[in-house]
């Protein structure tokens, strides 16, 4: 039965017209659009155009380009946030070290060494090798640092210091972690190192030596220029003591978008590029940045 609103067109003429439209549509690659248009026209309805394959591919390409532009920016923003958390953690540790000095005749805690574990050492534990490429070693009870037994733990966290020291205890306090330090950073539990030139007995420039009690904060020359704490590469952290030209010389200091955080004696922090960290570990820069009496 013919639709009431449809024009009275002979069937043969309609079939010929339809065939011509189909042939032209196949040649142009827009079959769906023309079939849909013809079908709607035959029934007296308004034609609704569709997407061609080429148009769809163009849209997909535009979306891919936009994603390529936005994803790096999102990654940088995420890393910037982690860098801020790292700075806040270092600032809290620095404050804890200064509070410790207030209660100990102005003397700072000591940088310590691998498993030296003296009462004034800021960090206990450590390992002679970080086994950076052997993750199976990270599961050892002796692996990593023990902040909970360190001299400044209660000043940094407000929790009781855990003594006597037991390497079987491996409390993890987030404030000692850099969120960008990866799996090895999590395994080692502490991602910051104290300047080694603050340790008793350290030989400094001009034939000076750090005394048996360590370094008093009031005797530090130019505290805004002297490094106290370093966001060290976990792969080089045998101990939590940053010795210029020591194992750290083989580290990679690009944790936060090509930089690492550095804490100074006056409490402020700066971000140093890898090249800068390498530079300050040799020559006159060692005295300028690390020697407390220079």
List keywords for this structure.
294 residues, alpha+beta, 36% helix, elongated
Write the layout of secondary structure elements.
Elements: H1 11-28, H2 31-42, H3 53-103, E1 124-125, E2 145-146, H4 153-157, H5 182-188, E3 193-195, E4 227-230, E5 241-242, E6 259-264, E7 269-273, H6 274-279, H7 284-289
Parallel strand pairs: 3-5
Antiparallel strand pairs: 1-2, 3-4, 4-6, 6-7
Helix pairs in contact: 1-2
User: What is the H/E string?
Assistant: HHHEEHHEEEEEHH
Helix content: 25-40%
The tally of helices reads 7
From the N-terminal CA to the C-terminal CA, the straight-line distance is 105 Å
Structure class: alpha+beta
Number of strands: 7
Shape: elongated
User: Over the alpha carbons, how many angstroms does the gyration radius reach?
Assistant: 34 Å
Main sheet characteristics: 5 strands, mixed
Briefly summarize what is shown.
The protein is built from seven helices and seven strands; from the N terminus they run αααββααβββββαα.
Write up this protein:
36% of the residues lie in helices and 8% in strands. By secondary structure, the chain is of the alpha+beta class. It folds into two domains: 11-50, no CATH class; 81-289, no CATH class. β6 (259-264) and β7 form a beta hairpin. It is elongated, with a radius of gyration of 34 Å. The termini are far apart.
């Amino acid at each position: 039965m013919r639709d009431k609103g449809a024009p009275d067109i002979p069937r043969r003429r309609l079939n010929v017209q339809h065939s011509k439209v189909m042939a032209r549509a196949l040649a142009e690659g827009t079959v769906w659009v023309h079939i849909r248009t013809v079908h709607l026209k035959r029934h007296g309805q308004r034609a609704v155009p569709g997407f061609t394959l080429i148009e769809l591919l163009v849209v997909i390409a535009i979306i891919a380009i936009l994603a390529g532009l936005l994803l790096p920016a999102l990654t940088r923003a995420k890393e910037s946030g982690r860098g801020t958390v790292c700075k806040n953690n270092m600032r809290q540790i620095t404050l804890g070290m200064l509070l410790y000095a207030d209660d100990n005749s102005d003397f700072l805690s000591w940088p310590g060494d691998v498993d030296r574990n003296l009462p004034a050492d800021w960090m206990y534990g450590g390992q002679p090798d970080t086994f950076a490429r052997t993750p199976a070693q990270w599961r050892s009870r002796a692996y990593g640092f023990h902040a909970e037994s360190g001299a400044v733990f209660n000043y940094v966290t407000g929790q009781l210091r855990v003594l006597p020291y037991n390497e079987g205890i491996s409390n993890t306090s987030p404030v000692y972690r850099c969120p960008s330090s990866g799996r090895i950073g999590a395994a080692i539990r502490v991602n910051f190192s104290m300047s080694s030139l603050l340790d008793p007995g350290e030989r400094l420039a001009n034939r000076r030596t750090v005394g048996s009690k360590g370094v008093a904060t009031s005797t530090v020359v130019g505290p805004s220029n002297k490094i106290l704490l370093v966001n060290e590469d976990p792969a080089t952290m045998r101990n939590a003591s940053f010795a210029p030209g020591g194992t750290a010389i083989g580290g990679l200091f690009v944790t936060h978008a090509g930089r690492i955080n550095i804490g100074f004696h006056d409490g402020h922090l700066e971000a140093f590029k890898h090249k800068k960290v390498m530079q300050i570990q040799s020559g006159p820069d060692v005295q300028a940045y690390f020697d407390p009496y220079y």
